[in-house]
Amino acid sequence: MAIDTAFKTLNAGALRRLALCTPLAVLSALAALPGSASAATTTLVGKASGRCMDVSGNSTTPGAGIQIYDCHGNPNQQWEFTASGELRTFGGTRCLDAKGQGTTNGTLVTSYTCNGQANQQWRYNANGTISGSQSGLCLDVTGASTAQKAVVQLWACHGNGNQVWNRSDGGTNDTQAPSIPGNLKVANLQCRSVTLSWSAATDNVGVAFYDIYHDGQAMASVSGSTLSTSLTLSPGASWGLYVNARDAAGNVSQASATLPITVPQCSADTEPPTAPTGLSGSVAGTAATLTWKAATDNVAVSAYDVYRDDAKVGSTSNLSYTDSGLAASTTYRYAVAARDAQGNVSARSTSVSLTTGGACSNPVCSVSQVATDTDIPWGLVTLPDGNVLYSRRDAQDIVRLNPATGAKTTVGKIPNVSGTDGEGGLMGLAVTPAFPATDPWLYVMHTTASDNRVIRLKYVNGTLDTSTIQVLLSGILRNKFHNGGRLRFGPDGKLYVATGDAQNGANAQNTSGLNGKVLRMNPDGTRPTDNPFGNYVWSYGHRNPQGLAFDAQGRLWEQEFGDGTMDETNLIQKGGNYGWPDCEGTSSRSGGGCGTSGYIAPKHTYPTADGSCSGIAIVRGVLYVACQRGTRVYREVISGDSLTNVQELFRGTYGRIRTVEPSIDGNLWMSTTNNGDKDSTANNSDEKIFKVILGN
């Protein structure tokens, strides 16, 4: 109860008596009032010390330090967890505060005037730790001391006794997520703005925030009392809008149904660009490189389309394009057309004919289509006989493909798989090198109606034996997007698992949780004893990783979707923190940003418009990165701990590319994800699987 309200409950005599008291005595008297804030307060007792979290010197002065002290129950040891994530004391007049909005190890915490900022928002976790919403760090007794007056600070969460706080009220972590927001509507749709509204979600404690997204990218966050907001749009975009509800404990609802919108252009434009001029080309082995002069347009040229023998084979915003994997000793005719943002296309340039060399001397020697599918190929593994197994995300089954004949055989459907009306479903696959002769287990990551999980089942005589299913790890939070999904066995014999943050960045910094991580487990699902945090977590601070690959030195590389700025390729270190949500690639977003002590920088970044990269593969010391929005594959040479000689392959040639995997003969498998990849509808796609023969 606020102090002014509490005063109104006192009679005049009581007010005169309180006027003669010290401020602390006033607070003590108010705390004793029926229905005052103290009714919902608790002491926080350190597990290691047995002492209480205490405002030093009983001081009500803003900025007073926090320590541990023998428990006595006075107001400076009484704490209230509020629905907005605050940790209040002194009858609700002061809030626990990360000093100076610090987000680094050793930041002190104080009792300060409540202001609603992120450095005053806290979460009581299931293991008894208390983490800061802004920093992701835990309340920690300095030096693991148990002594009277030992100082409380922020430190990386590890869950040892000096970070565990027992509550006298018996309270536990709020783990119940809000219900799903509904009834999305738009009003006043214009070329750069729209008003989105929705109906309220419910929660056992209270909805603190609503987070608004389009297609997995964050757009805005508003308070839990707000049910509409104005959004900034991009002219001509086709987006799917949806809303998540979030409570003060950080629990996030499943996403609302998607509301598709088509954004109008700001003005009608029917004038096409001029035709490109000066087209010329050169040949190196079986690759042709084209260059041309810029076209002009009344508004702007947005892209150039490249035609080979009158068939469109690629698009680029540059003034050059390399067409790889051509047949040897063959003549091809090329032309280029310019295109503006409203789809007006110019006449084609004057054509040029180029003849390839007699042998391949290029990074890519040839590309051949092996199969098509009406669903989305997601995970893919190579069998010793040269066949492959791949998962169909929305159809929820696994197919064996014979590349020599193109024949496909369904080997089984995985039970209990559920879509998310986004990017969840049947995802990553992995096998050990002994598969299937002496190790018949196929490892699978998939979404269920309640979580993401890792299972294994036996592949026997060419079919899946679903009676052998073992759930190795469950409870990985799911959402419409940001489910991660890639699996990879390391040279150490351990299984590595990429998990997304489930559209809640706070998950990525919580080392006690499974989301926004690279996880590591034994093949039977048990936890390796040498994992850095005593659980499954191997690295953390990830947003939505979907690429894992080991190089010849046994090092793990990871590919991660950014939000709206940049994607990133990381070289993973045991126990490493890769910065999300404070840092996106090399772009600071919140808290201490990318300069935060301990954050590990990526080895390479990509603008999201050129990226949205998913799977990666390493073949002969070269990293291949499959990109969706960027409609290309990046080829990057691993040199030491750097990525060098970065090249773009197939830009716009095959559309959105999700998966690349090494083939048994040292080349590359590649699959597309062009249609239906943002819903959970089975067989509404038209995808292709390619074999890429690599050269130098």
Q: Which fold name corresponds to the CATH topology of the largest domain?
A: Neuraminidase
Largest sheet: 6 strands, antiparallel
Residue-averaged pLDDT: 91
Helical fraction equals: under 10%
User: How many helix segments?
Assistant: 4
CATH architecture of the largest domain: 6 Propeller
Strand content: 35-45%
Indicate the CATH class of the largest domain. Mainly Beta
End-to-end CA span: 73 Å
Number of domains as seen in the coordinates: 4
Secondary structure: number of strands: 52
Anisotropy-based shape: globular
What is the spatial order of strands in the main beta sheet? 2-3-7-6-5-4
The secondary-structure class comes to mainly beta
Low-confidence segments: 1-39
Radius of gyration: 29 Å
Identify the CATH homologous superfamily of the largest domain: TolB, C-terminal domain
Outline the structure in words.
- This protein is mostly beta strands.
- Helices cover 4% and strands 43% of the residues.
- The chain has 4 helices and 52 strands.
- The strands form 15 sheets. Strands 2-3-7-6-5-4 form a 6-stranded antiparallel β-sheet, with no helix packed on it. A 4-stranded antiparallel β-sheet has the order 16-15-18-19, with no helix packed on it.
Give a brief description.
By secondary structure, the protein is mostly beta strands. It has four domains: 41-167, Trefoil (Acidic Fibroblast Growth Factor, subunit A); 182-262, Sandwich (Immunoglobulin-like), CATH 2.60.40.10; 277-355, Immunoglobulin-like; 364-694, Neuraminidase (6 Propeller). Helix content is 4%, strand content 43%.
